[in-house]
Design goal:
The chain contains 9 helices and 13 strands.
């Protein structure tokens, strides 16, 4: 058994200080149950839950892993982990996280796949509110109504791309493959159009129809994925900025902070500890 802050993990079950279980829907009579933790370090090891889980950090960041994929979760985002999916979390700095364990039989419209959700101010407040719900409550109470709205807000929240989507159109594929190899290329859509034989309007339309996002957001996603990789290699922010197409350290820091919700220096410090 390993201690994680004020909670304990044993046989894939986390209990709070009162000995209540938050991982198995059979252990808890409520369709949504919250565990809140403040700590300076946490490493859950790989485990799974019989319920769905929404993992949200109101402070700090966490590195979350599922088989074949890693993600960084910041206060602007939450991870939706469907039932029985093996995952682990590592939190190297001071953090405050809220885990909502949700019975997907009661709330069947929640996603069936792992995803990262953008957290709106409304969703944030609803997540933080759950730990204050007065027990006991049932699905016909005001808390049951809140649970329905919360599940709806989670489902409706925008998904953040985890992996860079790949195009099917030949012209778009040329653009994307080159930028994946060389994210520092600064061509405009018009310049790319001249290279691949399409107008900038055609390429703009293809990005949205084929990939579901704009050229600007696709390129930003590529650059940020490269940035995380280069930060892990201990490169300086200035070197990274130039390597992924930014003209200055400040421009890179502004873009990184806008994308992840924290500056590259904080990511670097967290990863090195």
């Amino acid at each position: 058994m390993t201690s994680i802050g004020k909670y304990q993990q044993q046989d894939n079950i986390v209990t709070d200080k009162h000995g209540r279980h938050g991982f198995h829907q059979t252990d808890n009579k409520h369709s949504i149950y919250s565990i809140s933790q403040k700590s300076n370090y946490g490493n859950s090891g790989f485990h799974s839950h019989e319920t769905g889980q929404l993992l949200y950090l109101s402070e700090g960041i966490t590195h979350l892993s599922i088989p074949g994929l890693q993600a960084v979760i910041s206060p602007s985002r939450a991870a939706w982990i469907p039932p029985n999916l093996e995952h682990s979390t590592v939190m190297n700095k001071a953090h405050h996280y809220q885990s909502l364990y949700i019975d997907t039989q009661v709330h069947p419209d929640l996603p069936k796949h792992f995803c990262i959700k953008q957290v709106s101010p409304l969703l944030r407040q609803m997540i933080l509110d759950v730990e204050h719900w007065q027990e006991p409550w049932d699905e016909s109470s005001i808390y049951g109504l809140k649970a329905q709205v919360l599940a709806y807000e989670i489902t409706a929240a925008s998904e953040v791309p985890i992996q860079v989507p790949s195009p099917s159109d030949r012209r778009l594929a040329i653009v994307c493959e080159q930028l994946m190899r060389q994210p520092d290329i600064k061509h405009s859509l018009k310049e790319w159009g001249q290279i691949v034989g399409a107008s900038d309007k055609t390429l703009s339309r293809l990005f949205k129809s084929d990939l579901g996002i704009s050229f600007h957001h696709w390129r930003l996603h590529v650059r940020m994925m490269h940035a995380v990789s280069l930060l892990d290699k201990n490169l300086s922010s200035t070197d990274i900025a130039l390597a992924i197409g930014y003209c200055s350290d400040s421009a890179f820091t502004h873009a990184f902070n806008g994308y992840f919700g924290y500056p590259p220096g904080e990511y670097k410090r967290s990863s090195s500890n």
